[in-house]
Amino acid sequence: MFNKFLLLTLIFICLSIKADEAFFCKECTSLENAKDIAKLKYAPKLQCNSTDPISPPTPDNSTCGSIARNIILVNPTTKDVYSFRVGHSNQAPFYPAMAWSRDLSAQDVSGYAMVAEYLSTYKNGIQIATSNANLSKSSISFSSSGSDTATCPTDTALSTLVDPNARKSGVRVR
Question: Where do the H-state alpha helices sit in the chain?
Fold first, then answer.
């Protein structure tokens, strides 16, 4: 299982390096929806510089732009993969965020879908383990709640550790 995790992690890292950045996106249910999310959440920071190096930038003397980012959004439920190049338009004065669709190879799409499938399997495993742990805790607490303290042994290693002189003096710790 660990080897499979390591392999999928390496695949995801290799794909992420090529694509710049990849994210899971449960809200990405269609191409248009994913494009809107890419523009809202993953647009690069807009940077404005003054055309006059001596004065600070103002709307009248500045040029603005951003370094576009390659973003991949993967829906972990549907395993759909969306790829965009996200940046800003050069239309002053608002410079709106833009997202241009990009094509991915079939291998890239398959790799991202595999990672999404692994995430789903991993979450399912965690959910099962957590529910089993909760069941185990409830049965332990149920069985310990029925114990009778009057029947507890008194001459034990614990009583010797707690009060080592009690054994020597003949007094029992209760």
Answer: 2-19, 31-42, 106-145, 157-162, 164-169
Contacts with 56 (C-beta within 8 Å, 6 or more apart), sequence order: 50
Mean pLDDT, the chain, rounded, equals 77
Give the global pTM.
0.60
Angle at 162 between CA 159 and CA 163, to 5 degrees: 85
Give the pLDDT confidence score for residue 95 in this predicted structure: 86
CB 96 within 8 A of CB 53: no
Q: Is 134 exposed, middle or buried (0-12, 13-18, 19+ CB in 10 A)?
A: exposed
Whether the per-residue pLDDT at 70 is higher than 90: the answer is: yes
Residue 4's Cβ-side half-sphere holds a number of Cα atoms within 13 Å equal to 8
**Residue pLDDT, tens place only, 6-65:** 455 556 555 544 547 999 999 999 999 999 999 999 999 988 888 888 888 777 778 888
The C-alpha atoms of residue 35 and residue 81 are separated, in whole angstroms, by 12
Contact yes or no for 119/113 (Cβ under 8 A): no
Phi first, then psi, for residue 161 (nearest 5°) are -70, -40
Query: Which of 122, 119, 71 minimizes the C-alpha distance to 97?
Result: 71
